[in-house]
Amino acid sequence: MPAFMDCVVQVFLVLSCATCYTSENSLCLRVDAELSVLVTAWKGDKSISEKNVDTMKFHSGSCEASHAILILNCTLGQDTMFRYSFEREGDAVMLLYSFSFFPTDVFHGLPDMKDYMYYGFASPERKVGTVESSYKCDRKQTIQLVKNYQPNETANYNFSVQLNIKKIHAQAFNMKNSTFSPAVYCPAEASNPSPSIAVVVIVIVLVVLLASATAAVVVVLHRNRANKPACETSCRIA
C-alpha cells in the first residue's frame, strides 16, 4: 500500500470522524468513534482527582501495508495523545488503543507534580476482524488501559486510565469505493443485538408469515441501511 499522504479529522466533543488517504488519493483508513478517556490521580489507595478527556483534534496518521495509525491530540496539552493502532497479522487485523500524557497538562494545581514525567497506557491488542472487513460496535465498552511506560523517578502520584467507547466503526485496510466493508461486530453486539435490530428481526418474521416476497424486500432494505457508513458527510472532506 502506498505511504500515507494526508489525513483529515473532524471532532465534535467526543465524536471523532477521521479519514486518511494515500498519495493516489485512495482512502486507506477511516475511524468513526464516540469516546472519552477518564484519568484518575491516586496517592496511595486514595483517589485525589479525576479528569474526563472528551475533546480531541487531529495530530498525525499513517497507512502502510502491515500497519496503520491515527493519533489525536487532546486539548489539555500538545503532548496529550490518543492513538488507534491497527496491525495486520496475516489476514487478521489487530487493534490497540493507547493514551499518553504529562500529568501537569491533565491535572492543574496538584502539589509536587513534575513536568518531565511522561506516562503511557495501552489496551490489550485484540483481533477486530479481517483485512476484508470493518469493525463495528454500537454498545458501550469500558476498557482499563494498562501502564506501558512510566518515569524511572519515584513518583508522588499514581495514575489510572479508563477508556469509554460509546460506539466505533473503523477500517484500516482494503477499503473499496471509499466506504466501509461489511462489518465484524464486537462480541457484545454479536451475541446481544441492539433493540432496534431486534425489532427489525421481529417485523421481518411477521412479514414472512404474510408474504415471502415482501419479506425479501424488507431484508434488502435493512441490509442497505446497515452497510451505510455513519458520519459519511462530515468525514468526506477533500
TrEMBL record:
GO term, biological process aspect, one: establishment of protein localization to organelle
Transmembrane segments: 197-221
Signal peptide residues on this chain, from the entry's feature table: 1-22
Keywords from the named record: Glycoprotein, Membrane, Signal, Transmembrane, Transmembrane helix
Cellular component GO terms held in the UniProt record: late endosome membrane; lysosomal membrane; plasma membrane
Top-rank taxon, per record: Eukaryota
Protein name, per record: Uncharacterized protein
Organism listed in the record: Elysia crispata (lettuce slug)
